[in-house]
Amino acid sequence: MENTERRAESKAKSLWEVLLVSTRLGLTSFGGPIAHLGYFHNEYIKRRKWMDDRSYADLVALCQFLPGPASSQVGIGIGVMRAGLMGGLAAWIGFTLPSVLALVLFALVLQGFDIGNAGWVHGLKLVAVAIVAHAILGMGQKLTPDRNRATMAIAAAAIALLWQTAFTQVAIILAAGLLGLLLYKNQTAEAVPAMRIPIKRSVAVACLAVFFGLLVLLPLLRGISPSHWLAMFDSFYRAGALVFGGGHVVLPLLEREVVPTGWLSAQDFLAGYGAAQAVPGPLFTFGAYLGAMMNGWAGALVATVAIFLPAFLLVIGTLPFWDTLRRIPKIQGALIGVNAAVVGILLAAFYNPIWTSTIVEPIDFALAALLFVMLVFWKSPPWLVVLAGALGGTLISIMT
Question: So which residues are the signal peptide here (predicted)?
């Protein structure tokens, strides 16, 4: 009885910890999905050591391959491994809710404000530059330690920058996996740290069945039912289920669903997109803005659940099998290539859009370098780096 109570108390403590940490990340993680992976690496791996670097890299590789919001899926996966299914839910709520509330508020009240051009927002983007540079440096040292892997990473970065399509990322990962399989096929099986996946395979299979079932059934039901709510759910679910390449790629999918149907004007759509760039958290919360513009708080809730549901189902459905696959020697060889490619994909995204849209003047570079030094050498807590970036961005806007 005492052991049961102790386990329940420990589980509740872990769940609460996941919620608190992910909420802090949801309030401070500016800069888009690649920046989010940098924030996660700094908070979950470097600071709290909830996972080792290799397991984190393997999780990122899986989520980069799956359709949907990669950074949110990584967060859900970490939450699941830390505190079970409810931990995954807590991680998603904490990371997503601040952005959802901000965008719904913008939709209902603040449409006349241009917060996207505020000085403090620019400063927060400079924080993202420092965070992502730190993450790439750390992951690069561990995942590309030799000539072959470093070359694969640079090649992946070049391809990602020069061939920009919705399926580029998936193609790079597949090619890197095949190359890794060829180059490292004779490598001795490595003792990979176990991922703690508290999910039964039967649950995982059920989640995958629900994912594909909804993808097929929702359009059929929409065709025979006049329900506006069902049509909304179908549109946002498909957008979340069929997008490869991160948050920005979902925008044209959503535009085709809500503007031609007359649910929203093109002007309102673009206004919300501008606001989504200025708030922390995942870009997929743009769906909350669209839902609020269409049907208030209820619309925001339906749109948010629908667009993120595929991410949940896919992560929970694949994690138990992924932990087994990553231990097979041949798969390990493929993963060596995939992880090198992931570093390259992060490097490409660091250059464009993070660097090109943020470092436009010498003073921007100076502030980003200072923030990087604070983070890497002074070991300053992330919240202090974020505060310094916001203040620095405000000062830059006043000076220029």
Answer: none
